Amino acid sequence: MPASGIWNLILWIHYTALALWIGGISFLCLVAAPVVHHSMASKAVAGEIVGKILKRLNVIELGSCFVLISTTLTSFHFISGREKLLWDLMLGVIFMGILTVFYAYHPTPRMDSMKEKIPAFDSLSANHAAKIEFNRLHRIYVKLMSLNLVLGLMVLYGSVVALKG
User: In the prediction, which pLDDT does 116 show?
Assistant: First the structure.
């Protein structure tokens, strides 16, 4: 593997995209969402703020996915003898991208629609059908995003192994 400036740039872009993706999910889950939800009197307002952050994070995730696919494909030109590792890495990134597309475009629009139809979401009882459905969709979103974080850490490890000099 050549230690060229181009290869170093590819590695830097690859790891930056991965750091943005993993770091974005980590920051949202460990810092932003808990702070916003504990600081706001209204769960609906807190959810609206976190929802807007999530929409921007989803764009960063999808951009990172595109960059990681591109850098991994480019790596085939620079690395020989580790093609299987590169394909495994590619599959991990693609699976992360599919999960992101799913949770960004399946439960999110449904939850947004529910919040628009019910302006006083905070006042609903825990047994209200809309609140039960919203909470179910939210749990799905959180589990899928958590899975993406774990996969991201696996892709990070795979990147270190497959792309090492």
Answer: 83
Residue 3's pLDDT is: 66
One DSSP character per residue, 30-99 reads IIIHHHHHHH-S-HHHHHHHHHHHHHHHHHHHHHHHHHHHHHHHHHHHH--S-HHHHHHHHHHHHHHHHH
| Segments of the chain with pLDDT less than 70 | 1-3, 165
Asked whether 73 and 83 are in contact (CB, 8 A), the reply is no
Tokens 């597309």 correspond to: 101
Contact between residue 56 and residue 93 where contact means Cβ atoms under 8 Å apart? no
Chain segment 80-99, per-residue pLDDT in tens: 999 999 999 999 999 999 99
Rounded Cα–Cα distance for residues 16 and 161 (Å): 17
Q: Kindly give, in sequence order, each residue whose CB lies less than 8 Å from that of residue 61, ignoring residues fewer than 6 positions away.
A: 21, 24, 25, 96, 97, 100, 104, 148
The distance in angstroms from the start CA to the end CA of the chain is: 6
Query: What does the alpha-carbon distance between residue 145 and residue 54 come to, in Å, rounded to a whole number?
Result: 11
CA distances from 92 to 1, 112, 148 (A): 23, 29, 10
- What residues contact 112, with CB distance under 8 A and at least 6 apart? 51
| Strand, coil or helix: 150 | helix
